[in-house]
Design goal:
With 483 residues, the protein is mainly α. It is built from 17 helices and no strands. It folds into two domains: 175 residues, Vanadium-containing Chloroperoxidase, domain 2 (Orthogonal Bundle); 206 residues, Vanadium-containing Chloroperoxidase, domain 2 (Orthogonal Bundle). 59% of the residues lie in helices and 0% in strands. α3 crosses α8 and α16 packs antiparallel against α17.
Length: 483
C-alpha cells in the first residue's frame, strides 16, 4: 500500500490537469482487510477561500451594457430591412415555419434542452454541468430583463401590416421590438455554451442562427432588432463568464495536490492512479450560501467503528443479493458519463413541472436561475465535505463489494447525487407545495440508488440530502431577490 501511495503521488502532477477538466472515470481495486475499530483520523479541513456574504442574486447593471439607438422608422436602413423581410416571407419554407413555432414556444426551455444534449455528448462531469446550467440560466434571465428595459426605453415597434405588407406568424407581448429579446437569449445562450463546450460550437452556432433568423421569418423583428439583441446577449455572456472564470482560477490554486494517507482514507482505484475530480470545487464562491462550508456535514462514522461496519455490511449485503428492482433504481439515477448528469436530470424534472403549471417564459427563466444556483451550491457543499473527510468508497473498504455502476474517482462522503437531489427537491417543493411528497420521494430514491449501486454508504446519502435540502430551502427564501 505504501508503494501504491508513492506511485500515486508521482502520478498526480500529470493527472491534475485531467482532474481540473472534470474527467470522471471509473474503476476499482482490492485493499487490505478492514481493521479493528479505531478513531477516524483528524484531517485538516479543505482550504476555503475568503468569502464575503452572498450578494444579491446576480443581475447585471444596466449601466454596464450598451446598445446603439435604432434606425429611424423612415430611414433608408429600415426600408432595406423591411424589404428583406418581404423577400424572406416570399421564399419561406415549411421547415422555416416549423422553426418559427418551435422557437416561439419557450426559447429558454429549448436552450436548456440543447445544454443537456451538449453536456451528455461531451461526457461532462456533474460539476462542470452544474456550472453550465447556472451560467446559461443567468445569461438567459439577464438577456430577457435587459431586452425588456431597452425595449421600453427605445419604444420602437415593428410597422403594422398596412405599412409593411407582412402579417406576423406569431404574436409578441414584448413592449417593443428593439432589441429582439429572442436574439438576446440566443446570443447569450450560445456564447455561454460555446465557451464551456467549444467542441460543440458548430451545433450550438447553428441553433443560435436558426433561433435568431426565426424572428425574421416570423415577421416580428427586423435585422437591426436582431443585431442589437445579439450585441446585448454577447455582452451579458462575456460579463458572466469573466466572473465565473476568475472564481474557477482562484479556487484551482487552493489545492496543494496532496492526498492524505491512513486508515479509511480514499485513494484512486484507477490504474494508473489519477488525481480526484476537482478537489478545488468546495472552495468556489457560492451563489446562495455565505460560504462553502455553511452546511458542512458532521464527520462520518469512524473507520472500523460499529456504525461504519454496519453501513459497510449493508452495502456488501446489497452487492451479494442485489435485486432487479434495486438494479433498476441504481441505473435510473446513475446519470453518469454520457448523460445530462444529476443537475441535468433535475432540470428536466423542473421543466416538466413548469409545463404542467403553464409557467411563462419569464417565470421559467427566473425559476431556472435559482434552481441551478441551488444545484451548483449543493455540489460545492458536497465537495467541501468530500475533501474535508476524504472517506474511502465501500468497495475500497471491502473489495468483495461489486458496484453495479461505475466507481467515481473521488471520495465518498457526502453523496453528490443526494446533495443535488435534496437541493432541487426542496426548492421545487417550495414552488409547488402540492408536489412536496413526490419530490421528496424522488430525492430519497436518488440518494438510495447509490447504495444500491454499491458506491456509497447509507450515511453518505442521508447527510447529502440534509445539506442539499438546506441549500434548497435557502434558495426558496432568496428567489424574491430576482425582479
Amino acid at each position: 500500500m505504501r508503494a501504491h501511495r508513492s506511485h500515486q503521488r508521482t502520478a498526480l502532477l500529470a493527472a491534475i490537469v485531467l482532474a481540473l477538466l472534470g474527467v470522471l472515470l471509473a474503476g476499482c481495486s482490492s485493499v487490505a482487510e478492514l481493521p479493528p475499530s479505531t478513531s477516524a483520523p483528524v484531517l485538516a479541513p479543505a482550504p476555503v477561500l475568503a468569502h464575503a456574504p452572498a450578494p444579491q442574486l446576480l443581475l447585471l447593471s444596466d449601466d454596464t451594457l450598451r446598445i446603439p439607438a435604432p434606425p429611424a422608422l423612415e430611414s433608408p436602413q429600415l426600408k432595406l430591412e423591411m424589404a428583406e423581410l418581404q423577400a424572406l416571407r416570399r421564399s419561406l419554407t415549411q421547415a422555416q415555419r416549423t422553426a418559427v413555432q418551435a422557437w416561439d414556444g419557450n426559447a429558454v426551455v429549448r436552450w436548456n434542452e440543447i445544454a443537456r444534449q451538449v453536456v451528455a455528448r461531451t461526457q461532462a462531469d456533474p460539476l462542470t454541468a452544474s456550472r453550465a446550467y447556472v451560467l446559461l440560466s443567468l445569461a438567459q434571465y439577464n438577456a430577457l430583463q435587459h431586452a425588456d428595459t431597452n425595449q421600453r426605453h427605445f419604444d420602437r415597434h415593428m410597422p403594422g401590416v398596412a405599412q409593411s405588407g407582412i402579417s406576423p406568424l406569431v404574436s409578441s407581448n414584448a413592449p417593443g421590438s428593439y432589441p429582439s429579446d429572442h436574439a438576446a437569449v440566443a446570443a447569450a445562450s450560445a456564447a455561454i455554451l460555446t465557451e464551456l463546450f467549444p467542441i460543440e460550437s458548430p451545433y450550438i452556432q447553428a441553433q443560435r442562427a436558426e433561433h435568431q433568423e426565426s424572428r425574421l421569418w416570423a415577421g416580428v423583428n427586423c435585422r437591426s432588432d436582431i443585431d442589437a439583441g445579439v450585441a446585448l446577449g454577447q455582452q451579458i455572456a462575456q460579463k458572466l463568464l469573466e466572473r465565473s472564470n476568475a472564481d474557477i482560477l482562484a479556487a484551482s490554486s487552493a489545492w496543494d495536490g496532496q492526498i492524505p494517507t491512513g486508515q479509511g482514507i480514499w485513494f484512486s482505484s484507477l490504474q494508473p492512479p489519477m488525481a480526484p475530480l476537482s478537489p478545488h470545487w468546495g472552495t468556489l464562491h457560492p451563489w446562495l450560501m455565505d460560504r462553502p462550508d455553511q452546511f458542512r456535514a458532521p464527520p462520518p462514522p469512524a473507520f472500523g467503528s460499529p456504525s461504519f461496519r454496519a453501513a459497510l455490511d449493508e452495502v456488501r449485503h446489497i452487492s451479494d443479493t442485489r435485486t432487479p428492482e434495486q438494479l433498476r433504481i441504481a441505473k435510473l439515477w446513475e446519470d453518469g458519463r454520457g448523460s445530462a448528469t444529476p443537475p441535468g436530470h433535475w432540470n428536466q424534472i423542473a421543466i416538466d413541472l413548469f409545463a404542467e403549471h403553464r409557467l411563462s417564459q419569464r417565470e421559467v427563466a427566473r425559476a431556472l436561475v435559482v434552481l441551478n444556483m441551488a444545484l451548483m451550491d449543493a455540489g460545492i457543499s458536497s465537495w467541501d465535505a468530500k475533501y474535508t473527510y476524504w472517506l474511502l468508497r465501500p468497495s475500497q473498504a471491502d473489495p468483495l463489494i461489486k458496484p453495479a455502476v461505475p466507481l467515481p474517482n473521488f471520495p465518498a462522503y457526502t453523496s453528490g447525487h443526494a446533495a443535488f437531489s435534496g437541493a432541487a427537491a426542496a426548492f421545487l417543493a417550495a414552488l409547488f407545495p402540492e408536489k412536496q411528497g413526490e419530490l421528496q420521494a424522488m430525492a430519497e430514491q436518488a440518494a438510495l440508488s447509490r447504495v444500491y449501486g454499491g458506491i456509497h454508504y447509507r450515511f453518505d446519502g442521508e447527510q447529502g440530502l440534509i445539506a442539499g435540502q438546506a441549500v434548497g430551502r435557502l434558495a426558496a427564501t432568496r428567489m424574491h431577490e430576482l425582479p
